[in-house]
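Regression report. Comparing outputs from two consecutive submissions.

Submission 1:
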Amino acid sequence: YDPSEGEVLLDGIPLRRLDPRPLRSAIGTVPQDSFLFSETLLENIGLGIQEDAEPRAPLTGEGRSRVEEAARVAQLHDTVMEFPRGYETFLGERGINLSGGQKQRAALARALARDPSILILDDALSAVDTHTEARILADLRTVLAGRTSFIISHRVSAVMNADQILVLEDGEIVERGTHEELLALEATYANLLRRQMLEEELE
C-alpha cells in the first residue's frame, strides 16, 4: 500500500518507482501468527530458496546447508535433530505437531534462509520463552549486520540493541531514540522495561 502521507524510500528511491517483484523478493517477513505448510520441515524452511528450480526438486547441497544454518540461528536445529526423521519430519496442517514457539522459530528460519536484504520481524518471538529469545537475539545480531531490519515487539529485550527505537502508544509515536536515550527520558519506554524486568523476576 502507498502511504496516505509522505513517502517510503529505499536507498533514497520512493518505493512506488521500484518494480514490486524484485522488491518483494528482497524482503523476508516473519509474522506473529506463523503459517506452515503440510510438508516436511526442510521444505517449509527452504521455501523460496529454489525459486528457479524445478517444482518439488529436493533441497540438497548449499540449499540444505542454508536451511540448517538458519535453523541454528533460530535455535531450532537441535530440536529438529531430536525428531526421529530430523528435517524430513512431515508437518501436519498448519504445523499442528509443533509447539507455538517451534512454529515461530521455523518461520524465522524460513525468512533467514532466503538471506533477504530487508527483514521484518512482527512480534516474531512472542511464543518463545525469554531464555530462548535471548539466544536467538544474540545470534541475530551477527545476521542482521548489513541489512535493514524492522523488529516489532512488546518486549524491550527484542529491540534494545536497535539503532533507532520508536515507541508507539494508541497508534502514535510517543518516543524515539536509542535504548540509552529512551531510558534517560524516564517515560513510557523506561516504565515498560521496569515492568518487564519485574515480571521476569517474579517468574
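Submission 2:
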Amino acid sequence: MRRQYWKNWSSSLDRPMEALVYGHGGAPVLVFPTSRGRFFQWEDFHMIEALREPLERGWLQLFCVDGIDNETFYDFERPVSEILDNQQSYEQYLCQEFLPALRQENPSPFLISAGTSFGSYHAAHFGARYPHLVKRVVAMSGDFDVSKYLDDRYDPPAYFYNPMAYLSGVEPGPYLEALRTVEFRLAVGAHDFCREPSEKLAQLLHNLEVPCRLEVWDPHWIHDWPTWRVMVRHLL
C-alpha cells in the first residue's frame, strides 16, 4: 500500500501542518481525527488496515489531516471568540491549502469527508458548511452539537459552526440546493451516548430532504475503535 507523509507550511494557521496519505487512487477521503487526535490516529488504531483491500485496489485514497482541537473546542479556558477564530482559520486551511494539495494528488471530484466520535462533527460540519466541496459524509458515533464547548451559545457567530443550529434555519435557495447534493451516512451503536445527536442530525437532514442514511447498530457495538473498524468498511 502506498503511504505518503506530507508536511507543509500553512499561512492560514502560521505553522507547519502534517498529514498522511494512503492509497494510490479512487475516491479521495478527507479523514478527521477524534478529539485532540493527530493525523496518524487512524493508522495507530488500525483503521488503515481495516481498509487495506479498497486502498490497495485503488477504490479509495485516504488523506488524514491533522487537527487543532486543543486550540478550539477542547481548550476549555480559551474565550469563545478565540475558539471560533481558530476554527475559522482551520477551515480556511482546509479549503484554501489542504484541498488544493489533495486535488493535485487526486483530481477525482467525489470527495468524502469522514470521522469517528468528535471527528464525525468535523466531517459532518465540513460537508454541511461547504456542500460544494463534498459529495459524501461518513460520520460514526458522532455528537454534532458543539454548543457545550461555546458557553451554550447558538447565536452568531457560534451558530455558523454548529450543524444542529444552522441546519435548523435553512431556507430555500442555492445553499439548500447544494446541500441536497451531499449524501450523509451516519452510524451509531444502540447504547452509544451519541445515538441521540445522531438521530437529531438525521431528522434535520430528512426535514430538508437531504439524502441521509442512519444506521443504529446492536448494543454490543460500543463507542470505540473496534466498532469503527467494522463500520468504516461498511459505510465508505
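Expected: both submissions complete independently.
Actual: both completed, but the second showed a warning that disappeared on reload.
Relevant detail on submission 2: The mean pLDDT is 97.
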